[in-house]
Design brief:
Blueprint: E1 7-17, E2 29-40, E3 45-49, H1 56-63, E4 71-76, E5 79-80, H2 86-92, E6 96-99, H3 113-124, H4 129-142, H5 159-171, E7 177-181, H6 189-206, E8 209-214, H7 217-223, E9 226-231, E10 234-239, H8 241-246, H9 251-258, E11 262-263, E12 269-270, H10 298-302, E13 308-309, E14 315-316, H11 321-325
Parallel strand pairs: 3-8, 3-9, 6-7, 7-8
Antiparallel strand pairs: 1-2, 1-4, 4-5, 9-10, 10-14, 11-12, 13-14
Helix pairs in contact: 3-4, 3-5, 4-5, 5-6
Length: about 325
């Protein structure tokens, strides 16, 4: 018997109208999301990976109900977030919070840490000052900070500490889901590991679910139970990390693996497979990845690819998936 997912996203589309270039032609559109469907079960983590412009951050904003989608459904705990009232949505936000990419820009420099962390609670419910301070103190300790930090300001902390503050702010409402948009990309490598370990510890302690947006394959491999690879607003491959990174079935996933910087024998680093991402406003038939794929044939140019099973829990939107899986696989390097 299957249980209902914590987060259920179905056929999500998000289109943006471009400025009109001529009075004789209708304005064009950018398809930032094009039929995205995913689910996240309680206590599990989903990673969304892809290049800049693939639709990852748009997906995060729509899931967080910061934008209303053109069409599709985003349901949290069975509630369609786009069909409830503004008051209901405000109350529902205690169940889902967001951690942003930039730990420097996401914290108000004029506010103390106590006010920053307490802000989601003060919006959601009226509680007395003593209880509020006790909640802030508890959540700061949970992320490795001290009571004495409450009266400080963001500029007094390092980048890793600021991201811990951002995580504390997300935890203060005791949410069931945290959407993290590139939460470690602005941090030094040594600090990234500390923040990821913290996120993992908090998940085990509180049963949190994460939607982790990242371009870093090693990050999602470490933290996520399932990974979805996005290209031009579509999910082109989805499955467990070991499926995608050890037996990838889409040439785009393989290109992402090849693009990971690798150390050469003669010193220095190289980046392979990096190419410019295609336009999301381009009207094309067939596979969206066809212009970049070395395996593409006429069938790929003419017939749109849909996600299909290539393993028990492994999906790929590629006519040549079996041929891609037969190629020598590439490791994910942190």
């Amino acid at each position: 018997m299957s249980t209902a997912p914590l987060l259920d996203v179905k056929d999500l589309e998000q289109r943006y109208t471009l400025p009109r270039e001529s009075v004789f032609r209708p304005p064009g559109q950018v398809r930032a999301l094009n039929g995205v469907s995913v689910r996240v079960d309680a206590g599990k983590s989903l990673g969304i990976v892809g290049e800049s412009g693939s639709g990852k951050s748009t997906f995060a904003r729509v899931v967080m109900a910061l934008e209303r989608p053109t069409s599709g459904r985003v349901a949290l705990l069975g509630r369609d977030l786009n069909r409830i009232s503004a008051d209901e949505l405000r109350r529902a936000r205690r169940d889902f919070q967001m951690v942003f990419q930039d730990p420097y820009g996401s914290l108000d420099p004029r506010q103390t840490i106590a006010r920053i962390v307490a802000e989601p609670l003060t919006v959601l419910e009226g509680i007395d000052r003593t209880t509020l301070r006790a909640r802030v103190s508890a959540v700061l300790r949970q992320v490795g900070l001290r009571d004495a930090d409450m009266e400080k300001y963001p500029h007094e902390f390092s980048g890793g500490q600021r991201q811990r503050i951002a995580i504390a702010r997300a935890l203060i409402t005791q949410p069931k889901l945290i959407v993290a948009d590139e939460p470690v990309s602005a941090l030094d490598v040594s600090v990234q590991a500390q923040v990821l370990n913290l996120m993992q510890d908090l998940q085990e302690q509180f049963g949190l679910s994460y939607v982790l947006i990242s371009h870093d394959l090693a990050v999602v491999d470490y933290l996520c139970d399932e990974v979805a690879v996005m290209y031009l607003g579509r999910i082109v491959e989805q499955g467990r990390p070991e499926d995608l990174f050890e037996h990838c079935a889409h040439p785009y996933t393989r290109a992402l693996l090849e693009a990971v910087p690798r150390v050469r024998a003669g010193g220095g680093r190289r980046r392979r497979g990096a190419q410019a991402i295609a336009s999301q406003s381009a009207a094309a038939t067939g596979c969206p990845y066809v212009s970049r794929c070395a395996l593409a044939d006429q069938h790929c140019r003419e017939v749109l690819t849909e996600l299909r099973k290539v393993g028990e829990t492994h999906l790929a939107a590629c006519h040549k998936a079996e041929a891609v899986m037969a190629l020598p696989q590439l490791p994910v390097e942190g």
